[in-house]
Amino acid sequence: MIKKFFRGQGLVEYSILIALIAVGIILALQLYGISVYDAYCYAADKISGGQACEPTQLCLDDFSTDLSGWTVLQGVPGSIEDGAYCPSSYTRLLNTCSTASGTDDYSVTLSGSDLTSGSGYGVAFRAEDTPTGMTGYVFQYDPGYYPGSFIFRKWVNGKELSTPIAVAPAPGYSWYNTPRDIQVVVEGDTFTAYVDGVAVLTATDSTYTSGGAGIRTWDSTKVCFDQFEMNSIP
User: Fold this and answer.
1) Whether residues 38 and 109 fall in one domain
2) So what's the pLDDT on residue 234?
3) Same domain, 219 and 182
4) Do residue 62 and residue 44 come from a single domain?
């Protein structure tokens, strides 16, 4: 009986010791700015040959043929020009693959986004076409919003709410004639927008939890996109 007691006590002590070591490792990682997830991915990638934490491609359109993979919600879709999609100055459309993916958390990227004139364009996400119009969110690359800003907006029943969810003014930013890679990462109730790999704006909202991705233009905008891509969050 005494031996069993001490054996049991030893197991408890070992468990506490392991827990303390784990807490210490986590605190040390945080001290040096390394997330537990990143540490896990680093170790798992070493074992799996670098594929443990890679995202899965869900949808891809390189605009090499036509716009058959898109649903026009409003306006005129535009055209394919030299392997790039150039929407009309006023349009709203959703990628049909993205709406059918069934994935709530994802990243959506518009590569080679080249704005030449006009007030800007938007990347729609968690968006749906309803009988009353589009619902969802839009990240806007918006030189027309004084003094030029990055914006997250919400859409309800086909109408854009006047007050943005989040705004990051960018005075003096080079908005035109420079191809940009625009990415929005959607995870839970948090959305982060990146321009050329640099985070420019983060917002939180829990109204819409699902929906596809798309493109929006307005107000005499002229822009072309090289590629649309949607990936899972690893």
Assistant:
1) no
2) 83
3) yes
4) no
Question: In terms of residue numbers, what domain contains 30?
Answer: 2-48
CA–CA gap between residue 83 and residue 91 (Å, rounded): 19
**Same domain assignment for residues 41 and 129:** no
Please list, residue by residue across 182-193, b when 16 or more beta carbons sit within 10 angstroms of its beta carbon and e when fewer do: bbbbbeeeebbb
Give tens-digit pLDDT for 153-208: 999 999 999 999 999 999 999 999 999 999 999 999 999 999 999 999 999 999 99
**Under a CB-based contact definition with an 8 Å cutoff, are residues 213 and 129 in contact?**
no
SS3 category, 20: helix
Residue 206 in tokens: 């829990």
Inter-residue contact 45 to 226 (CB < 8 Å): no
Q: How is residue 26 written in tokens?
A: 């986590």
Task: Specify the residue for token string 């969110």.
Answer: 137
**What's the whole-model pTM score?**
0.79
Least confident of 35-39, 120-124, 178-182: 35-39
**Mean pLDDT (whole number) for 45-74:** 83
**What pLDDT sits at residue 21?**
73
Q: Is the peptide bond before 131 cis (omega within 30 degrees of 0)?
A: no
**Closest among 86, 62, 104, 109 to 214, alpha carbons compared:** 109
What does the block give as tokens for 41?
A: 């991915």
Please work out, in degrees rounded to the nearest 5, the angle formed at the alpha carbon of residue 219 by the alpha carbons of 64 and 60.
25
> Identity (one letter) of the amino acid at 43?
A
Mean pLDDT of 225-232: 98
Residue with tokens 């993205």: 98
